[in-house]
Design brief:
By secondary structure, the chain is of the alpha/beta class. It folds into two domains: 4-68, no CATH class; 98-191, Rossmann fold, CATH 3.40.50. 44% of the residues lie in helices and 13% in strands. It is built from nine helices and six strands. A six-stranded mixed β-sheet has the order 1-2-6-5-4-3. α3 crosses α4 (48-56). The protein starts with a helix and ends with a strand. Belongs to the DprA/Smf family. Residues 76-193 form the Smf/DprA SLOG domain.
């Protein structure tokens, strides 16, 4: 049986999400063990010898400790969002901080520019205020519309999820550190890294 830690090891050895997804489909169809070389072939890796070398040279106990720093879930878990599974090349593993139950709530995503106009920010605030807690807000954590959507959600006591493009221990942009820390404790932050 494939575990989330197996997925983590494959990714750390250089396998892409696309490659892992191909492997998962293979293992779902054919219930058999295969060699690392065959795994690389199924995953259509560019450098199979490099993958094999990186995989074999992993310090498994160190990797296991690193893996345990933040909780995670994968495509193999029930909590994984169905709509995310449907995209081309979905992330195999997602790490999180906060209330994972928010993934099961109806969501409304906000996407916008970093250099948001005051009119754009007011529009976000108005929309979020009128939601009356019927939706969980989902956005990145960049400046501009992303930040405005989370701040409006917090102000109106509406659940919110931030999806970030860095590790959970990295604050980017740095000016959003307090927001990220608040969301990690009181809402939900997701990261592929």
């Amino acid at each position: 049986m494939i575990t989330n830690f197996d997925l983590y090891r494959w990714k750390k050895a250089g396998m892409t999400n696309l490659g892992v997804n191909k492997l998962l489909k293979f293992f779902h169809r054919y219930d058999k063990k295969i060699s690392l070389r065959q795994m690389g072939q199924v995953a259509q890796l560019k450098s199979i010898p490099n993958f094999i070398e990186q995989y074999k040279n992993q310090d498994v106990s160190k990797l296991r400790e690193e893996y345990k720093i933040y909780p995670s879930f994968s495509l193999l878990d029930e909590i994984y969002p169905e709509r995310l599974k449907e995209i081309y090349n979905p992330p195999v593993l997602l790490f999180y901080q906060g209330d994972i139950r928010l993934l099961k709530t109806p969501k409304l995503a906000f996407v916008g520019i970093r250099q948001a106009s005051s009119q754009g920010i007011k529009a976000v605030q108005k929309i979020v205020t009128e939601l009356n807690q019927n939706f969980t807000i989902v956005s990145g954590l960049a400046k501009g519309i992303d930040t405005a959507s989370h701040l409006s959600a917090i102000k109106n006591k509406i659940p919110t999820i931030a999806v970030i493009g860095t590790g959970l221990d990295i604050f980017y942009p740095l000016e959003n550190r307090k927001i990220q820390e608040y969301l990690a404790k009181n809402q939900l932050i997701l990261s592929e890294y």
